[in-house]
Write a structure and sequence with these properties.
Elements lengths: L1 H20 L5 H14 L1 H14 L4 E9 L4 E2 L4 H6 L8 E9 L2 E8 L7 H21 L2 E8 L3 E5 L8 H10 L9 H18 L10 E7 L6 H13 L2 E8 L16 H5 L8 E7 L5 E7 L9 E4 L5 H18 L1
Parallel strand pairs: 4-5, 4-7, 7-8, 8-11
Antiparallel strand pairs: 1-3, 2-3, 5-6, 9-10
Helix pairs in contact: 1-2, 1-5, 2-5, 2-6, 3-5, 3-10, 7-8
């Protein structure tokens, strides 16, 4: 059974690699791929949905709750005590003050740079985005937006549009080229924070100032300007924006048999795991001389909320654990 699952996964990876290498990929082929990815991750999407249901509590009041002295609907259970008290116990009205619906704004950001072009990494990225979008849609989390980024950020599915459908998924798959020359995470955060601020101001619900927005970045974890990124992340936290970085660490996995690879990918396959990568910097000592300093890359990683994913099977548990820690910190504050 496990071998059959692996063969199905490798077959889907090969189909997606062939689709990416087509000169003019057909939208029908993208729709079939999206449906296949949805079917492959449906159980995991349900698992993640149920875990997020316990973490992302309802925020929008749609159910009646009482008792109030004024309102638009009577609480029939209080009518007899109201009459028996000689009309003194007049808290007999209901209001829509009981939270029962979720109205979050979630932005999924997908790395579209060349560092993601390895067939296994691109395949894992599509699995991750399909799983996340399906789980959030099942949960009815609120408003979902999807963007791609590299040198700049492009919105593929905006806030306020209809729920993410098969057509939207096919359009997203067709739009991902994994060909942008750089991964500018700093520029992504600058653009996304502005985009989320506009989305917050355009939301026509009461109490939007207390709304926490969520941005999930799906990338291989390569970023620069760590100090400036920390400043932006502090700004995001002040603006009630939670940023979670999903690091795809699949470059050391073997490519499936028959999967087409471009000429530039053998060098990418040799790149070590992000867990063993080091970051080199120069710092001045007490005498003013420059000395070389080497640190583990993840020790200097600017994102507090991040998960490392090598297999999509682990994503529901690690992502929900990270969001649960964030929710506990928010409740404690």
């Amino acid at each position: 059974m496990l071998e059959d699952e692996e063969n199905l996964d490798l077959d889907l990876q090969s189909r997606y690699a062939q689709f990416r290498e087509a000169t003019q990929p057909a939208l029908d082929g993208a729709a079939d791929l999206w449906q296949s990815y949805t079917a492959r991750t449906s159980d995991l999407a349900f698992q993640l949905c149920e875990q997020l249901r316990l973490i992302l509590s309802p925020t929008h009041a749609t159910r009646m709750k009482g008792d109030y002295r004024t309102g638009k609907r009577l609480n029939m259970r209080q009518i007899i005590p109201f009459i028996a008290s000689d009309f003194a116990k007049d808290k007999i009205w209901l209001r829509r003050t009981k939270p029962s619906a979720r109205r979050y704004q979630v932005l999924l950001s997908i790395d579209d740079s060349k560092s993601m072009a390895h067939s296994r990494t691109a395949h894992l990225a599509m699995q991750t985005v399909t799983l996340l979008s399906s789980a959030l849609t099942k949960l009815e989390v609120g408003d979902i937006s999807i963007c791609r980024f590299g040198r700049h950020m492009d919105i593929l599915h905006g806030f306020g549009e209809q729920s993410f459908s098969r057509h939207d998924g096919a359009r997203m798959i067709s739009s991902m080229s994994f060909g942008q020359r750089s991964t500018d995470v700093l520029k992504l955060l600058q653009s996304s924070l502005s985009y989320l601020a506009d989305a917050r101001s355009n939301q026509s619900t009461s109490g939007t100032g207390e709304l926490w927005q969520l941005q999930i970045i799906v990338s291989d974890g390569m970023c620069e300007d760590h100090d400036r990124l920390r400043c932006l992340l502090r700004q995001a936290n002040e603006n009630r924006v939670v940023v979670v970085f999903v690091i795809l660490d699949a470059l050391n996995d073997p490519a499936p048999a028959g999967a087409a690879e471009s000429a530039s990918q053998p060098q990418q396959q040799q790149r070590s795991s992000i867990l063993s990568m080091n970051r080199v910097s120069y710092q001045s000592d007490s005498q003013g001389k420059m000395e070389l300093k080497m640190e583990r890359y993840l020790d200097t990683f600017p994102f507090d909320n991040f998960v490392i994913v090598r297999d999509v099977q682990s994503l529901p548990d690690v992502l929900s654990a990270t969001l649960r820690q964030w929710a506990e910190r928010v409740n404690a504050a």
